[in-house]
Design brief:
Blueprint (H helix, E strand, L loop, with lengths): L35 E3 L7 H10 L46 E2 L2 E2 L7 H18 L6 E2 L4 H12 L12 H7 L5 E10 L8 H17 L2 H4 L2 H7 L5 E8 L3 E10 L2 E7 L9 E8 L8 E7 L7 H6 L8 E7 L15 E4 L2 E4 L4 E6 L1 H7 L2 E8 L11 E5 L1
Parallel strand pairs: 4-6, 11-12
Antiparallel strand pairs: 1-5, 2-3, 5-7, 6-7, 8-9, 9-14, 10-11, 10-15, 13-14, 15-16
Helix pairs in contact: 2-5
Amino acid sequence: MKVGPHYRSVTTETHVSTEGPPRKSRRAAALIITALILLAAFVVGAPYLSNALKQGYSIFSQLTSTGLGTQTSTVGPTSSTTAPNTNCSSVVSVRPLAAPDIRNGSANISYPAVYCDLVSYTLTLINADRAANGSGPVTLDYNQAAQQHADSMLYYGYFSHFDTQGLKPYMRYSLLGGLGADFENVAFFSYSANHFTSIAPVEDAIKILEHSMVYNDSACCNNGHRYNILDPLHNKVSIGVAYNGTHVYFDEEFVNDYIKLNFSVTGASSSNPHYVMMTGVPTQAFATPNSIYIAFDDMPSAQTISQLNSGPHEYGPGTLVGGVLPRDSLLGNCAQFQTGTTTCADKWTFSSTQVDIAFSLQKFRTNYGAGVYTIYLITGSSTNSAITTISVFLP
């Protein structure tokens, strides 16, 4: 992962075009492909973010699900809802495409009639690429963020990691109930004629986009998409596919999901405002977390289609404003970051059967004001190792 000094990714777009004679008898050769691929924020985010935190670490050193723009702390549902063995057809809802904006923790999400077939096909491609490069398989995650964003791009006619509500990927993931760590790739494929009228050409488009991200990503994107697809820590992926006759929008949300987690945060009116409680049971072994990073974003604001299409298309993990550290078992205090705000956790328990973390965001809210505070529970030395990207909206 790479990030600049302001913790921002760089714009990465790939344009691939081929043209053939525009006659119906040579329709296969009449293809005009425009494949645009944007780099996931966290794939371009770790070393500088990690180094900034490590350099600032002294040796002594969600919640009301009321939606965006309300006057309470908001995130998604208060427990992990992912069902790894869920049958695809039981979670999709085929309906006409409509405005898929996220309101009150939900969205009007439309899945194409052949969604389950497309997802099965895509998962096979992803896992074949991972196996060929030494990574284990990922399983399907049914968080709706991937399909919601694919729907949004098709419905409104834009291409960006941001959306018309100004939301970043990890914010959408959180608002729609995600409690793991989210890493996004998006791409689209366009045709000069009404072409995507059956499943086969849509699968062909997905195959080209997936192959380009894994095997032709160095020139445009410093292999950021490739890294995201092949990262061994990712254990799940949700997939979004939305298309009409001329465009296919494709979204991959890779996830680090290692805890069946319950998450809550008290409201501003409580006696202990913005108090976070994270409890759960590990579902898979993981390295013991050593800290929580807190990143800040301004409260999202609406963006026009022109703004989204003109860019910048990149997104970063917010501005690092400090973090949360476990207390010393003997002294009762905790180490301090040399810059930013440090909060000592009131609870910090990890075992093979229990996760129990508690801390307050109040100091961050006081120091940095209203906005979105994203919680990165870190198991290693960079955001590559995060197992949560939970966004909390504090007005």
